[in-house]
Amino acid sequence: MSSELIRELEEDLRAENLAKLWRKHNHLIIGAVAALVVGVGIHSGWSHYRLSREQESGDRLLAAVDLFNENKYDVAGDAFRALSEEGTSGYASLGAFMHAESLLKAGKVADAIAAYEALAQDSGADIAVRDLASLQSVSLRMNEKKEDGVPEALDAAMKSGRPFASSAKELKAVYLMQHGKSAEAAMLLAELVADTNTQQSMKARAEQMLSTLTADAPAAEDKKTEEPKSDDAAS
C-alpha cells in the first residue's frame, strides 16, 4: 500500500475520532449547567459552588476553543493546559486533549505525543478521552517511525466495549500492513467490514484496503513460488 494512502487513512482517523469525541462529550460544553441544576437539592450552598465552577470551566473552554479556531495555537495551548489543571472533571480532560491538539497544530510533534500519552495514562480521565489520546499518540508515532509500544497500545484500545475499538482495529491493520503482515491485517479488516456497527466511511476504507491486499496477494505468491533458474539452465 502506498505511503500516501496510509497518510490519508491516518489523517482520516484523527479527524473522525476527534469529531466522535466532541459528539460524545458535547453535553459537557452545552449541557453541564442544565445537568447540575437538576441535581440541586437541600445543599444549595454546595450546589451553587459546583454550578459556578462548571460555568467557569465551560466559559474557559469555549474561550480557548475560539483562540484555537483563530489559529492562535500557542495562546490556546496555554489556556487549555491551565484548564486541564484547574477545570472540573470532564472539562479538565477535554482541556488536556485540546492542549495536545494545540501543540500538534503548532508543529510541536514530540511535545504533542508526550501530552497525548500523559492523558492516555490518566486514570482520572474519561475512558473515551484516554483511548482517543492513545490513538492520536500511536498515529503520530507511526508517522514518526517511533513505534515502541504501539501494538500494545492498539491491542488495549481494541478490547470489546472500548469506545474507539473499531478505530483502533483499523489503525492496527494499517500498522500490520506497514510491517508486511498482510494476512493478519486482512483478518482485522474483514472483521470491520462484517461488523454492522462499523461506520460506513470506515467500512469503505476497510474494503479498499482489503481489495488492495487481495490484488497484491497473487503476485506475491507467484513471486514466492517461482523457481530461480540455475546457472547451467541459464547457459
Features:
235 residues, mainly alpha, 12 helices, 79% helix, elongated
Strand tally: 0
Radius of gyration: 23 Å
Structural class: mainly alpha
Gross morphology is elongated
Count of DSSP-assigned helices: 12
Mean pLDDT: 77
How large a portion of the residues is in β-strands, by DSSP E? under 5%
- Element pattern in H and E: HHHHHHHHHHHH
Distance between the termini: 38 Å
Biggest sheet layout: none
Percent in helix: over 70%
**Poorly predicted ranges:** 18-46
Give a description of the structure.
The chain has 235 residues and is mainly α. The chain has 12 helices and no strands.
Question: Can you describe this structure in just a few lines?
Answer:
The protein has 12 helices and no strands. With 235 residues, it is an all-alpha fold. The longest helix has 28 residues.
Topology overview:
Layout lengths: L2 H28 L1 H7 L5 H26 L3 H14 L2 H17 L3 H12 L6 H17 L6 H8 L7 H14 L3 H13 L5 H26 L5 H4 L1
